[in-house]
């Protein structure tokens, strides 16, 4: 674990972003819970994705399919066959297990022992539906959300009267029995995916693949992720998932190296033709104008909500050695500032009375807090010196601190402090909501 990752994990726990699942029982293998700030931030990521992929685009509708589906779907999709399996090797000495494709050497990276022959390990998580635990009642937790979209292709087409090209967007949980989860929430066994399936004419698939690559990269940049920490990586033919004709990953430069955060796939007619074959339903599209019947090709964009969460968090994390709030007793310490984008930050505003032993100040600050909290993710804090309170807010990425001071009582205004520049500006309380809406781009 790098030093930076240890600091981010510790901040996540200390400030209520992310907790280890089942912690009081010693934790549960690579599962995590999102705390009060984490759930706000994750919801902001999902909202930003949903707005971008549905509202700001033409011809894209949403779906929320069930996690449990007919096991026949996973036969048709290729997930139950060798297609969705990793190669597992075990060290004969320490018995640690590894994914073969993650190993650079042919010996155990932990103790240099020799390794067993690789064996296929299917990643689908099994469960049983109904009172009997037999083959017939076996079902799977979905390993990718998109299969729910493919099997609803006709339902969506017929109910919404869309014409090709069009897209279906979905956000939901997915599960994989990963052999080597790790790097905090980077690779877990339960995670959330945000997926778009774009159905188009086969002849247009290559152009749309390029179009969606650009659009998806732009999304991260618009939300404030640093350009130098993002790159495309074209996936080599031999690495392609069983369903993909072509794939490009968007990678982020994590402290543990460049890693995939999103996959953009040209799935061709793989999914619709296989589901047609296995279900007996004709999933071809009929173009009435051209009198042409064909399986639409699918361009998919697939990003993990949790994995992108980690990228946003890492990207925003910064430390100011020696402190930047010179007035505080803690100025000699390291100050953490989470420079999260305005849309992603879990808390937008903090209302702070300058001191808490002046009832008029506290009363005024409380009134302001109450008037803002239904429109803005807002926090009230009166404990500790003002410098300490600024630092507490900087550490969780709060965009603006609103300080109510003695002048506020006479002039009916307050100071608005910007997290990144630390500049303070006096704003009339009557104008506050409007000014903040504009500043926050609401
Ligand atoms: N439907 C296509 C699909 O699932 P994928 O490349 O296997 O493609 C897409 O996964 C994205 O889902 C990844 O880029 C990553 O963001 C997220 N993801 C996949 N496995 C994950 C895991 N074990 N933990 C966290 N996120 C994961």
Which key terms come to mind for this protein?
single chain, 442 residues, alpha+beta, BirA Bifunctional Protein, domain 2, Rossmann fold, 2 domains, 7-stranded mixed β-sheet, 5-stranded mixed β-sheet, 12 helices, 23 strands, 28% strand, binds glycyl-adenosine-5'-phosphate
Q: What's the short version?
A:
With 442 residues, the protein is α+β, with helices and mostly antiparallel strands. Helix content is 30%, strand content 28%. It has twelve helices and 23 strands.
Structure notes:
The mean pLDDT is 94. A hairpin with a 4-residue loop joins strand 14 and strand 15. The protein has 12 helices and 23 strands. It starts with a helix and ends with a helix. With 442 residues, the chain is of the alpha+beta class. The chain has helices at 3-14, 36-55, 71-77, 146-150, 153-160, 205-222, 270-279, 305-316, 359-372, 386-396, 406-411, 432-440, and strands spanning 18-20, 32-34, 60-62, 85-90, 97-99, 119-122, 125-128, 138-141, 166-175, 190-200, 230-234, 246-254, 257-268, 285-287, 292-294, 297-304, 317-320, 335-338, 349-353, 378-380, 400-404, 413-418, 424-428. The chain is globular, with a radius of gyration of 25 Å. Strands 3-9-10-16-13-12-11 form a 7-stranded mixed sheet. A 5-stranded mixed sheet has the order 20-19-21-22-23, with helices on both faces. It folds into 2 domains: 3-64 and 142-313, BirA Bifunctional Protein, domain 2 (2-Layer Sandwich), CATH 3.30.930; 337-440, Rossmann fold (3-Layer(aba) Sandwich), CATH 3.40.50.800. Glycyl-adenosine-5'-phosphate (GAP) binds next to strand 10, strand 13, strand 16 and helix 8.
């Amino acid at each position: 674990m790098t030093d930076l990752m240890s600091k981010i994990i510790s901040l996540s726990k200390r400030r209520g972003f992310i907790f280890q699942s089942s912690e009081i029982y010693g934790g549960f293998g690579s599962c995590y819970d999102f705390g009060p700030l984490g759930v706000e931030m994750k919801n902001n990521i999902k909202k930003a994705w949903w707005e971008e992929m549905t509202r700001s685009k033409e011809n894209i509708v949403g779906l929320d399919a069930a996690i449990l589906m007919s096991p026949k779907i996973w036969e048709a999709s290729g997930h139950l066959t060798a297609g969705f399996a990793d190669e597992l090797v075990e060290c004969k000495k320490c018995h640690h297990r590894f994914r073969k494709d993650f190993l650079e050497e042919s010996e155990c990276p932990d103790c240099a022992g020799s390794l067993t022959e690789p064996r296929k390990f299917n990643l689908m998580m099994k469960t049983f539906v109904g009172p009997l635990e037999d083959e017939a009642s076996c079902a799977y937790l979905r390993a990718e959300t998109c299969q729910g979209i493919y099997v609803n292709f006709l339902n969506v087409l017929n109910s919404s009267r869309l014409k090709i090209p069009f897209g279906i967007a979905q956000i939901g949980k997915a599960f994989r029995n990963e052999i080597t989860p790790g790097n905090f929430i980077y690779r877990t066994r339960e995670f959330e995916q945000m997926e778009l399936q774009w159905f188009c004419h086969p002849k247009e698939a290559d152009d749309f693949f390029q179009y969606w690559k650009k659009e998806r990269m732009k999304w991260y940049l618009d939300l404030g992720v640093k350009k130098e920490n993002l790159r495309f990586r074209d996936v080599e033919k031999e690495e392609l998932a069983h369903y993909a004709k072509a794939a490009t990953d968007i990678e982020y430069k994590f402290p543990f190296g460049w890693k995939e955060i999103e996959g953009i796939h040209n799935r061709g007619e793989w999914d619709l033709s296989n589901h047609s074959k296995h279900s007996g339903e004709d999933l071809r599209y009929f173009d009435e104008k051209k009198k042409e019947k064909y399986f639409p090709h699918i361009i998919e964009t697939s990003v993990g909500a949790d994995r992108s969460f980690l990228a946003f968090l890492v990207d925003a994390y910064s430390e100011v050695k020696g402190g930047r709030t010179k007035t505080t007793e803690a100025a000699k310490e390291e100050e953490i500032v989470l420079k999260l984008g305005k849309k992603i930050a879990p808390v937008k505003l903090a209302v702070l009375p300058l001191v808490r032993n002046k009832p008029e100040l506290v009363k005024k600050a409380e009134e302001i807090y109450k008037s803002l909290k239904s429109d803005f993710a807002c926090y009230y804090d009166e404990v500790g010196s003002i410098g300490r309170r600024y630092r507490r807010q900087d550490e969780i990425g709060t965009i603006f601190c609103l300080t109510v001071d003695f002048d506020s009582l006479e002039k009916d205004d307050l100071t608005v402090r910007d997290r990144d520049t630390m500049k303070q500006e006096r704003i009339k309380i009557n104008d506050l909501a409007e000014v903040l809406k504009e500043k926050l781009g609401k």
